[in-house]
Write a structure and sequence with these properties.
about 625 residues, alpha/beta, Rossmann fold, nine-stranded mixed β-sheet, seven-stranded mixed β-sheet, 26 helices, 22 strands
């Protein structure tokens, strides 16, 4: 026997239910495997269509062949919401979509939801909740929603403020599915959502048509709490593009991700290689432009005695990449071991880990474009720009000069970028693709004995402990395509060269860094990033003649071979972010639990004058 409750409210009674909330619950049908529950609403002044809707609901229930029991509370003086709660302990699915709910009448819905203590699924899609309504729903005071597993808030006209309210929710710890599609959340809102620490069980996230582009996707990829995420839908965000997909693949937390839907997102077919490079998404299947592209890449073990950065001699010979000899196999095996040790050493540097705790994304501008129009050049994130442009397979540039003022962060960026590239290495993807990974080797030029003539060889010998024969393997990489490509990150050019000696055309050509170090002769597949203080080069009018590959016949830099970026000082917003990181890292708070009962989303220390990281930061910002 299924349960049914009928709520009756007369205009003559003192205790009445608002018409809006009656309309909300008029057509709710809920059923589980064991019991069936129907909430049927009667109202004296209901219109015929309303009564018809109620009768239709009852007919839908009866089709299951069960006897219906209707409890008529017409002659009772009890509060009808209270009476409903007595019969609703088995309800776990509630559909309130298309009910024209607005922030003005949503408090009534919140009150009614208190009747449903076992609610698991709630559909509020296609309403008008707005930022205010979302704030009411996500408040940590709504403890009746602690069991919520599925929530549909699509098409509710809320933006980044509503997203911020959602991000502060810490009681939906069982949430598995969240649909926020069709709301103008945009990049700012997604940054808030990605920082929510409580939704650790989230498995399906739907963010279709929310105005997302590269900046927002980058914030989304930084999420570290959704460890169980299996499906991510980003359809109809046309500004996402290839850059956005690349930024998304930097995520290392969603190791169970199986489906990534990016239809109508401006992503080209060849950009799917970015997904392939993410070694954490081993079972990911991408959906692009209505076509399913299976990017599931099984792990292959090439040879027990050799690291997976390299192919076996047999597979190399099948691909026509040179002869196979025991000596060559031994050299490659030793070289593989050294590369592994180097990679782990860079990743586990304690001093670097300490410094990067306070790292703020480095912003830069294109110095070559700034020479043309310095007032209309937008800044960009330097790390992303280098990976997308300078290191792109179709980019012919060989040298990137990075300048900036004293203390702007050039050296820290070099170390950060080296580790960033290594952290995203995916040897398995390299084996299945013609593209090779970049092996970044960062060195302070002032520490080298022959920085002007043999910087590359000396850096490899010092950083990777390579022998001359192993260095030759890299130099002859045309016939050994199984080797990674070398990226030399050379910091502090002004420390080894008096830039006053570079003034004038002849001096620049004669002391050209690229030529004097033999990069064009010995390292044809390598690329170079070199840093220098901007003030040291202020009098050098043709910097490409100092750093770029030179066309010897014409005496000019080879077109397209040279890029130049200048690091920008911190903005006020970045200074605030740095202060926040510094204070929280320097004075960690041991008690930052949210007081849910007090109705505040903020830590106790922020609501009091306690000596904590939040309190210190607040005082510092005031000063």
């Amino acid at each position: 026997m299924s349960q049914a409750a009928a709520l009756y409210s007369s205009s003559q009674k003192a205790q009445r239910i608002n018409t809006n909330i009656l309309n909300h619950f008029s057509d709710i049908l809920t059923m589980d495997n064991r019991k069936q529950f129907t909430l049927t609403v009667y109202y004296d002044n209901s219109s015929p269509p309303f009564r018809s809707s109620v009768r239709e609901n009852q007919r839908n229930i009866s089709q299951y062949g069960r006897d219906e029991e209707v409890l008529d509370f017409e002659h009772h003086n009890q509060n009808p919401i209270q009476m409903a709660s007595e019969k609703s302990d088995q309800v776990n699915v509630l559909n309130l979509s298309f009910r024209k709910t607005s922030p003005q009448n949503f408090p009534i819905v919140i009150e009614a939801l208190s009747c449903f203590q076992t609610l698991i699924s709630l559909d509020l899609s296609s309403n008008y909740l707005g930022d205010r309504g979302i704030a009411l729903l996500s408040s940590n005071q709504n403890k009746q929603l602690v069991l919520l597993e599925q929530l549909n808030l699509s098409e509710n006209q809320f933006g980044h403020k509503g997203s911020k309210s959602l991000s502060l929710n810490i009681i939906w710890v069982k949430l598995k599915l969240l649909n926020l599609s069709g709301n103008p959340i945009r990049n700012k809102g997604i940054k808030f959502l990605a920082q929510n620490p409580a939704w650790t069980d989230l498995q399906v996230l739907v963010l279709n048509n929310i105005g997302l582009d590269y900046s927002g996707v980058k914030a989304l990829a930084a999420n570290e709490s959704w460890e169980k995420l299996q499906e991510l839908y980003l359809n109809d965000n046309p500004e996402l593009g290839d850059h956005g997909l690349l930024a998304l693949t930097y995520n290392k937390t969603w190791i169970f991700l199986q489906k990534l839907s990016i239809r109508n997102c401006g992503v080209k077919q060849n950009a799917l290689k970015f997904i392939k490079r993410n070694k954490y998404w081993k079972d990911c299947k991408a959906l692009v432009s209505g076509v399913s592209n299976n990017t599931h890449y099984s792990k292959q073990i090439v040879h027990n005695s050799m690291n997976s950065f390299f192919l076996t001699p047999e597979s190399s010979r099948r691909r026509g990449k040179g002869k196979s000899t025991p000596e060559a196999a031994a050299d490659l095996s030793e070289l593989s071991s050294k590369i592994n040790l180097f990679k782990e050493r860079v990743k586990n540097k304690k001093i670097l880990n300490r410094d990067l705790k306070l790292y703020i994304e480095t912003q830069a501008k294109d110095n070559l474009l700034e020479d043309i129009d310095e007032y209309n050049i937008e800044s960009f994130e330097l790390d992303f720009k280098i990976k997308m442009c300078f290191l792109a397979d179709d980019n012919s540039a060989k040298v990137l000069l990075i300048t900036g003022g004293t203390g702007v962060g050039k050296s820290l960026f070099c170390r950060y970028f080296q580790r960033s590239v290594l952290m995203n290495w995916n040897p398995e993807a390299q084996q299945e693709s013609s593209e090779k990974e970049w092996l970044p080797v960062s060195i302070d030029l002032s520490t080298l004995k022959n920085a002007k003539t043999a910087a590359a060889s000396e850096a490899l010998a010092r950083e990777l402990h390579l022998t001359e024969s192993e260095i030759k393997l890299f130099q002859n990489s045309n016939s050994n395509s199984i080797l990674p490509r070398l990226l030399f990150i050379l910091d502090g050019y002004d420390a080894i060269q008096d830039t006053r000696e570079l003034q004038g055309y002849q001096n620049s050509i004669q002391k050209n860094f690229y030529s004097s170090n033999g990069f064009g002769r010995d390292w044809t597949n390598a690329k170079i990033i070199i840093t220098c203080r901007e003030e040291s080069l202020v009098d050098i009018t043709q910097r490409d003649l100092v750093f770029a590959p030179i066309d010897e016949k014409r005496g000019v830099a080879i077109p397209g071979s040279y890029l130049e970026y200048i690091i920008q000082p911190f903005s006020r917003l970045e200074i605030t972010a740095y202060m926040r990181k510094y204070v929280i890292n320097k004075f960690p708070n041991t008690n930052e639990e949210c007081n849910v009962d007090s109705g505040s989303h903020y830590p106790n220390s922020l609501r009091t004058n306690a000596l904590s990281s939040w309190g210190l930061l607040k005082n510092m910002k005031k000063s």
